[in-house]
Amino acid sequence: MKIAFIGLGNMGAPMARNLIKAGHALNLFDLNQTVLKELAELGGTISDSPRDASKDAELVITMLPAAAHVRSVWLNEDGVLAGIGKGVPAVDCSTIDPQTIRDVSAAAAKQGVVVADAPVSGGTGGAQAGTLTFMVGAPLELFATLQPVLAQMGRNIVHCGDVGTGQIAKICNNLLLGISMVGVSEAMALGDALGIDTQVLAGIINSSTGRCWSSDTYNPWPGVIETAPSSRGYTGGFGADLMLKDLGLATEAARQAKQPVILGAVAQQLYQSMSQRGDGGKDFSAIINSYRKPK
Ligand code: NAD
Questions:
Q1: Is the CB of 155 under 6 A from ligand 1?
Q2: DSSP code of 129?
Q3: Using CA positions, which residue lies closest to atom 14 of ligand 1?
Q4: CA–CA separation, 271 vs 268, rounded Å?
C-alpha cells in the first residue's frame, strides 16, 4: 500500500520503519532533513510538503508534537487536505486535544475524507518493537480499514468510539499516570525519610494495595526496577515536558466540560515546577526529586 507518513520524530520514525519493513511504499515528510534521508535509504520517498506526500497515497498517517502542528499540517495550503484523494482513509496518531481532531475531521468531511484519531501508548520502545497500543476514534468502517496497518506498528488496536474518543482515552490514562507517579514518589520519599529500606518498601507496596504501574514497573526510586529510567539517571523514557503537555490537555478538556480534576491540577503544577527548574527533558519519574532532600 502507498502510505503518506508525516512527522518522523522519536515515535514517527520507528513507526514508519516498521511499515517499510512490512512492505509498504512510504511518501515521507518532516521538517528534519536528517531523518528523511535516513528513511529514504530504507526505501521511502521524500516529499516536498504534506500535500505532495498525500497526493497519490492510499492512506495518510500523521505523528506530530501538538495541536498547532496538526492544524497546520492538515489544513494549510500545502497541507494534507490539499492533496488527499476523495475517500482515502486518514489517521492522526499525535496526542492532542479532542476538539482539534474533530475540527480537522469536519474540514476533511467536506471533501469526502474520513479522518480518525489514534493516539498511542507504549513509548519509543513500543514504537521500535511494534508493540504500541492504538486508541482509535473512528467510524467502524474506517476502523476496519486501519486495523491491519496499525497492527503492523502495534499490538493492541482498540476502538474507543467516534472521532475524538481516542484522545479522550489517552488523556484520561495519562492524567491518572501523572497523578500515580506523584503518589508513588511521595510514598517512597516518605518511607526513606522515616528510615525504611526503599527496596523493602517497594516490595511491600508491590504486593499490597498501593501497587500500580508507577510502583511495580517504573518505580521512581533508583535501583528498585533495573529497567526503569530512575535506574539510569532518569534518561530516556517519557519526558516530563510531554507529561506536562498531556496534563494540560486533560485540565483544559476538563475546564471545557466544567469537570473538576483536582489532583490532576496539582500534579500539573508539580511537573511545571520541574520543567521550570530545567528538568523538563528528564523522564517524568524524576518528579520524585521534588520530595528528596538535596544531597
Ligand atoms: P518528536 O518531537 O520527537 O517528533 C515530532 C516530529 O514532527 C519531528 O520530527 C518534527 O520535525 C516533526 N514536525 C513538527 N512540525 C512539523 C511540520 N509542520 N511538518 C512536518 N513535520 C513536523 O515527538 P514524538 O516523541 O515523536 O511524539 C509525537 C507525538 O506522540 C506527540 O504528540 C507525543 O505526545 C506523542 N507520544 C509520544 C510518546 C513518547 O514516548 N515520545 C509516547 C506516546 C505518545
A1: no
A2: H
A3: 64
A4: 5
Kindly state the cell numbers that stand for 50: 504534506
> Topology of 168-290 in CATH?
N-(1-d-carboxylethyl)-l-norvaline Dehydrogenase; domain 2 (1.10.1040)
Rounded (10°) CA dihedral 23, 28, 30, 35: 50
Ranges of each domain in the chain: 2-162, 168-290
CA dihedral over 128, 131, 136, 141, signed as positive or negative: positive
Our mutation pick for probing the ligand 1 site, out of 5, 6, 10, counting the most ligand atoms within 8 A of Cβ, is 10
CB atoms closer than 10 angstroms to residue 279: 20
Name the catalytic one among 2, 37, 170, 258.
170
pLDDT for 293 equals 82
> Which residue blocks in 57-207 are alpha helix, DSSP H?
67-75, 80-83, 98-109, 123-129, 140-150, 165-194, 198-206
DSSP codes, 240-276: HHHHHHHHHHHHHHHHHHT---HHHHHHHHHHHHHII
Residue 120 CA to residue 125 CA, distance in Å, equals: 12
Alpha-carbon gap, residue 70 to 63, rounded angstroms: 8
Check pocket membership of 6 for ligand 1, CB cut-off 6 A.
Answer: yes
Q: Nearest 10 degrees: CA dihedral of 218, 219, 221, 222?
A: -40
* pLDDT averaged over 10-residue windows placed end to end, the chain, 295 residues: 96 97 98 97 97 98 96 98 98 96 98 98 91 98 98 98 97 97 98 97 98 96 96 92 95 95 98 97 97 83
Name the superfamily (CATH) of residues 2-162.
NAD(P)-binding Rossmann-like Domain (3.40.50.720)
pLDDT at 125: 85
Q: Are 178 and 246 in contact (CB under 8 A)?
A: yes
